[in-house]
Amino acid sequence: MALPACYNNVRGPGPTNGFTTFQLDSDDYQILGTVEAEGTIYSILGLFNYGGQGFSALREKALEKGGDDVINVQTDLEVFGLLFFVYNEFRWKATGTVIRYRSGVRAAE
C-alpha cells in the first residue's frame, strides 16, 4: 500500500500566474512569429533545486528574433518523482507569440 507514494509521473498543463488584461489593437504591435523553449528543473530532497529557465528562455528567443515581448504564452508540465520528495523532475515546455511594439507602445522592462 505504500508504493503509490514512492513514484509519480504526471502530465498536465502548466500553472498560470494569473491574468492581466491589456487592451491592444493590431496597430499597437507587429507579430514576428512563435518561439518555443523547454527544460527540466531538478529537485533533490526539496533542498537542492537546479535547472530550467522558464519564461526567460522564451524572452531570450524573442529578443533574438528582434521582438520586444512574448504574448499568448502556453505551458505544459510533466512531473516525475521518486519517494515523494527525495527526487523530482519537472519537465516544462512553453510556446508563445513574439511581437514588436510599434511607436508609442513600450514593453515592460
Key words describing this protein structure:
9% helix; five-stranded antiparallel beta sheet; single chain; 50% strand; mainly beta; 109 residues; Translation Initiation Factor IF3
User: Could you say which overall geometry the principal axes of the C-alpha atoms support?
Assistant: elongated
Helix content: under 10%
- Which parts are unreliable, with pLDDT below 50 for 5 consecutive residues or more? none
What name is given to the CATH topology? Translation Initiation Factor IF3
Q: What do the pLDDT scores average to?
A: 78
The chain-level structural class is mainly beta
SSE pattern: EEEHEE
Approximately how much beta-strand content do the residues carry?
Answer: over 45%
CATH class equals: Alpha Beta
What does the main sheet amount to?
Answer: 5 strands, antiparallel
The oligomeric state of the chains shown is single chain
What CATH architecture do you see? 2-Layer Sandwich
Task: Report the total helices.
Answer: 1
What is the tally of beta strands? 5
Main β-sheet, spatial strand arrangement: 1-4-5-2-3
Distance between the termini: 51 Å
